[in-house]
Design a protein that fits this description.
Elements (H helix, E strand, L loop, with lengths): L1 H41 L5 H26 L1 H8 L16 H10 L5 H13 L3 H22 L9
Helix pairs in contact: 1-2, 4-5, 4-6
């Protein structure tokens, strides 16, 4: 019985944390956007194109975060919807992967079903080689992290 109430408490806490994070996001996003534009405009060394590039990257980073959230939250559903039942596949569900990255891996592994292939084609029409580039950029980012950690000796062989 104690486990039941613990699970109910954890469920309620999770729902409350989601609500708080959504409220904070809704409040902070417009403020952060205004701050970014004001700081960019008042910086005499910045050119208009730099302001636009910085502002567009602000929204691209938000979109990528939503993408990662969608992959983490709907991973099981996406595995069912987009992947063939095969031994070799790159599963959806990792909070650090974007949906496009996982699709890119599965194109390379030939493990997408017709719905997954359709989504890849759609994304590639919007942005040429989108899923492949997402996969490639994730590999480069991972390599960069490994090299940075190796250079400052954070990774200790006994831990790995």
């Amino acid at each position: 019985m104690k486990e039941f109430f613990t699970n109910i408490g954890n469920l309620l806490l999770g729902v409350i944390l989601i609500a708080v994070s959504l409220v904070l996001f809704a409040v902070v996003t417009p403020l952060a956007f205004i701050w970014k534009v004001v700081v960019s405009i008042t910086n005499e060394k910045r050119k208009a194109r730099d302001i636009l590039a910085g502002t567009s990257s602000f929204f691209i980073e938000i979109a990528a975060s939503y993408d990662q959230l969608g992959n983490a939250v709907f991973g099981g559903f996406f595995n069912w919807l987009f992947l063939r039942d095969t031994d070799i596949r790159y599963a959806f569900g990792d909070k650090d992967d974007t949906i496009s990255e996982v699709l890119g891996w599965n194109v390379e592994l030939d493990s997408l079903n017709k719905y997954g292939k359709f989504l890849v084609k759609l994304l590639d029409k919007l942005d040429e080689n989108h899923c492949y580039n997402a996969m490639y950029n994730a590999v480069i980012a991972a390599r960069t992290k490994v090299h940075q950690y190796e250079n400052i000796n954070i990774l200790k062989p006994q831990i790995l």
